[in-house]
Amino acid sequence: MTNIALVAHDAKKDELVAWAKAHEAELAGHTLFGTGTTGGRIRDETALEITPLKSGPLGGDAQLGAMIAEGRLDALIFFVDPLSAMPHDVDIKSLIRLAILYDTLMAVNEATATGIIRSLAED
Predict the structure, then answer these.
(1) Helix (H, G, I), strand (E, B), or coil: what is residue 30?
(2) Fewest CB within a 10 Å sphere: which of 34, 40, 41, 106?
(3) Rg of the Cα trace of the chain?
(4) What's the CA dihedral at 76, 82, 88, 94 to 10 degrees?
(5) pLDDT tens digits, residue range 76-119?
(6) Helix (H, G, I), strand (E, B), or coil: what is residue 78?
(7) How far apart, in whole angstroms, are the C-alpha atoms of residue 75 and residue 67?
(8) Is 80 exceeded by the pLDDT of residue 13?
């Protein structure tokens, strides 16, 4: 079983929820974590069990970063909105830096998320 985080910027939340619905069967076999509103929406709009974390700006990004550093997160699916400025940009950059540093599977859009979930299904 793989530990997967599901995160999305505000403008990408609908897209991530739709993606989670489309891949519900594949995601159901993993332990899922979600930040704030994103995790709540996935929990409410799918049958998936997801462990809620704090909202990104309130510490959720830091919680995920700690999980990565401690080896407790296997994949980060983070639908990033590249066109909107984020007031907590420092936290986002830290999370992405940790995912890169610790060689964590990371998707920042639907295409890479689908590639990751398909790859995990093959294992």
Answers:
(1) coil
(2) 40
(3) 13
(4) 40
(5) 999 998 887 776 678 889 999 999 999 999 999 999 999 999 99
(6) strand
(7) 11
(8) yes
Q: 10, 44, 61, 103: which one is catalytic? A: 61
CA pair distance 36, 91, nearest whole angstrom? 15
Task: Determine the Cα–Cα distance for residues 100 and 6; give it in Å rounded to an integer.
Answer: 17
Dist CA 29 CA 2 (whole Å): 8
What gap in Å lies between CA 33 and CA 12, rounded to an integer? 17
Q: Are 32 and 42 in contact (CB under 8 A)?
A: yes
**Residue 82 DSSP one-character state:** T
**CA gap 92, 41 in Å, rounded:** 20
Which pTM value belongs to this model? 0.94
d(CA 1, CA 92): 26
What number of residues does the chain have? 123
